[in-house]
Amino acid sequence: MKAIWNNTVLAESNDTVVVENNHYFPADSLKQEYFEDSIAGTTCPWKGRASYYSVRVNGELNKDAAWYYADPKPAAEQIKGRVAFWKGVQVVA
């Protein structure tokens, strides 16, 4: 699987975990040069507290376009250490 935004591959892995139709990529599959920490955060009742990354490619910013659960609840343990995408980031095989 590949995560692509602005004609650039942000992450690539054959080992994604699908939860709620989102592919969670291993953190070490991300091309770190495109990611910036965000102060955003949300809470999911069954997964826990989500943190976000913004993505910057060729000077364009996609704010809070990736999220992860640093310490997921037990029901979502399979996504620990993984990152998912939205906001126009295409996830393709």
From TrEMBL:
<dbReference type="Pfam" id="PF04248">
    <property type="entry name" value="NTP_transf_9"/>
</dbReference>
<feature type="domain" description="DUF427">
    <location>
        <begin position="1"/>
        <end position="87"/>
    </location>
</feature>
<dbReference type="InterPro" id="IPR038694">
    <property type="entry name" value="DUF427_sf"/>
</dbReference>
<dbReference type="InterPro" id="IPR007361">
    <property type="entry name" value="DUF427"/>
</dbReference>
<protein>
    <submittedName>
        <fullName>DUF427 domain-containing protein</fullName>
    </submittedName>
</protein>
